[in-house]
Structures
1.
Amino acid sequence: MSETTEPSDDKYPLRSVGRALDVLQALGAGSGNGMSVGEIAEAIGVSRSTAFTLLQTMVARGFVADTRIGGARLYRLGLTLVHLGDRAVAEMGITQIATPILQQLTDATQLTSRLAVLDDGYAVAIGRVDAPGPFRMTASLGRRELPHCSSVGKSLLARLPSEQVMAILTRLGMPRRTEHTLTSQAALIADLRETAARGYAFDNEEDNIGVVCVGAAVYDRTGDAVAAISVTCMKLGRSEDDLHQLGSAVRAYADRISLLLGGPAHSALPPLA
């Protein structure tokens, strides 16, 4: 009996994503001993050939793992999901942990503070405490920011290997936002080395003229930079010494969050190679 040929999923990207998610749900609802192609196809209502194509893509990405038992190939959830699950829990938890510290930072500096993470190379704010008073410098949560002109972006890039940083910059680009924006990889890598050494980063009018942001990374128990915090102020009337003092303060509050996550303070990090 011939099998029905279904339309190519390449023409239906949303349907393809839905089916991939159906595969994960079917495997998650299974016994844990693995499922065959036929069982998965039946569970999600597609042909065996479609199920097989989906599974090969998901195995290649680590979302599904396959094992041969005798002559049969069985599929189960892959380890990529473990990593993503850890990250999701960490990011959800870090907002709750960091918000009281952000409030303390804002109280101490009278400046708006933010918490951000890297998302596909971009810096994305996931938490914020606004400064008191009628004049506030706010930024939307969830908006992707280019990392080369962002203090939180630089803080998160600073501990990454140079090759990984350059790959991100090549992919995202380094557009000039102001006359102060660093637009060459060499200049930014040098800036990131300084950031890694002192523990805080500057966006010194690099994204908006007249505006300075100072950020510092937050580390988890593995020593990875999983987030960064920052404060934002006007450049007018602030000396270089003032900004470095502000950087030291932001770093100290970032260290508090790191310690709550079981991570090291900046001073305890090993030097970069």
2.
Amino acid sequence: MLSTIAAAALPILIAMLLLGGVAKLATADGDAEIGGLGRLGPAVLAPQRFRKAAMIGCALGELGLIAVLLLLPDQAVARWMPVAFFSVATYVLWDLRRRRPDVGCGCFGEVSAAPIGMRSIGRAAVLAAMAVIVAIESPGYAALSSWSWMTTAWLAGGIALVLLLSTEIEETVSRLRHRAPCEQRAIPAKRALSRLQSSSAWRSHVPMLVSDEPADMWRELCWRFFVFPARDGADVVFAVYLSGRRPAVKSAIVNADGRPITPLQESMHVSA
């Protein structure tokens, strides 16, 4: 019976580690707003300048544990590493809920931004228990060869339990049903910069720029502004609309005093 439960628990652990790792990497790469990672899980415990590195390190660790579960089931020390990971995660979430009740668990990146509750802690504890069973039985790839209907039943029950404890599902459904207006949505600056650099406004001004890295950037409502240094001490200011598949891009050239040299020009976003 224990081996059947272990065989069912293995794909659940792998799926959770994979989703968590990929989501954390996406959040770390896309979070360009100052302090954004300070609202997500254990990253809040790290100094501001190390939060992105902490998020990436955690993600890579989770992806590494997948290889441990699949490739090193017979290594006594390695197979207990997932147990240690989920056990520590359970304690950290419990401690964060007590010390910083305002932050999210960050288990799946920015999707897990809701304040930590007992369901998130319970999920981590359930995964830790699954990891213990897998470590005892260490099924590895052998679990696939001994699959049965009983294993499928345990798998379905495990998935149902994990879903029941996952607040991210409710958060995602709520976001889809009640999508915030553009002015209130968190949109990474990198996405706006990518839209800018594939626009005709960018291509028409890039020869006069002295750097392709913005000297300044800020957001006003649904517009993201970028300032690039240009020749003769001037600056080129771009404004990128943050909504729509083909957003408008505006540009203007200003002198050192902030006075416009050219009037504001507008172009539609066109992919190169």
3.
Amino acid sequence: MVHVEVRTLAFTPPLCPDNLFGHLVATAVPGVEEWHDGAYRRTLTLPGGPGVVSLLPGTDAVVATLTLADPADADEAARLSRRILDLDADPATVDATLRADPVLAALVDEAPGRRVPGSPDADEFAVRAVLGQQVSTAAARTHAGRLVRRHGTPLPDGFAGPGSTLAHLFPGAAALTAVDPDELGMPRTRKRTLLGLVRALADGEVVLDPADVAASRAALGGLPGIGPWTVDSVAMRALGDPDAFLPSDLGIRAAAERLGLPARDRDLVAHAEPWRPYRAYATQYLWAALDHAVNVMPG
């Protein structure tokens, strides 16, 4: 028996939906995420079984339709939906801090209220971050989709509704320890990094806990092949660290050049000191200076 429940998820305006939904959809894992009937939809692994959330953006709230195997999972699904969309952010405080920099002020004034697109599961996002190392968004989606098809748990027939492409839950770390390196179409060093990561997550050697960002960062950064870009990506998108920053990111470097910001990483980090403690939000505004699908509201 499938339980369907609708929740209204309030937020403090303003909320710029473009990069929020644009990023989630541009990087969506096939079979796990989709844009369907004007809403972002994805599968969730919940305590009582599978779930699907459909998040429809509105002017002053997001309408969340929760499709659940267990009605008792409704509060958890709503909580994870808020995390995905960063609905508990304080945009007035964030934007006021960033407006102090004249370069960012113009970007903030153009589209205030940008949020940090989140993830419902830090382990999942860590895997996706490694898959995305030094490859295009399209290639990362392809790699992730292949893992999902081979190792993800299928949804029950008809669970996601008519016309939906949602078919699987993203596989957990324990399931991914069974991955054969030969099935991974990536360089040998990245294969080792990915398999080392999923083993560490499955064994509990690395625990990614939003309640302890510092310890999570340290544990993740101690693994071979995991550098600052991956650690900060996970901290920003999956651990809720509002000050995570990606000075080495190619998009940030391109935006810095376009906006006349320092080109060298260390100089950009120094320039960004006044953006603290909201450098993750500054990152969204910098990315918004580029022509990329992550900045475009899905049609």
4.
Amino acid sequence: MHSRFVTIAGYKIHVLEAGTGPLVLLLHGFAGSAEDWRPTVAAVANMGYRAMAVDALGFGRSAKPGDAPYSLALMARIYTGILDQCGVTQATLIGHSMGGKYALATAVLHPERVNGLVLVASDGFVEASRLTMAGGWPLVGQAILWLSAQPRVVRMLLTAAFADPERHLTAEILERGRAALMGKDNRRALTALSRQYAATDLGLTGLRTRLGELTMPTLLVWGESDQVFPVEACGYVARSEIPKAHLVILPHCGHFPQIESPRLFQGALAGFLAGLG
């Protein structure tokens, strides 16, 4: 497994990749990075695919501009640009949480480039909160980021994201979560992203109304104990709005199936990928 940088649309994007074969892109959630997918990248590579986890613009080791036109269209352009640089016409997209709505946007805007979708506890099926929208206000946004980066707050938020935090919430995960909210570059990018939230929301951009256009096979994976995007409020809704979507609910699992239930998650993923031919 190795990391490298590619330049897409003028932005430096970091990827973590392994394996050879059909291309599979893995997109992380908010305040996450490609590192969150490291075990899954290895597993997908062992299945016979070229697995590539991507640090989204503004996150991880990718560029963190404060003046970028953050939008679903830009994210989709970056991911299709990666396909172009890899010399392939199509790829399977796996998106977790925020990465799920980025994957959906790419599939809606560039359906010919996506041969399969895997949405893991995906964002995109809830209304934006006032707090989320307020994060784009300079002073309010900085205050929210400062508070969110405090160790006790990070622990509280991540504890709620796991069904069994004592077993799965490691010091490494806690530190990665806190680091993603710290530092001048991270805060500048996150504030800019929040300021342009309307352009990154499936509902506000009108892309959610187009989900019925999707024709590629889609796997939905949700933890039955997800408190971030509960399966009752989001998973079942996603299944009803996306044609050909199959929903798998993992028992005793929260918002991170790939971390909390890796065996079951990878098993579902292997079956789905094999079925794409």
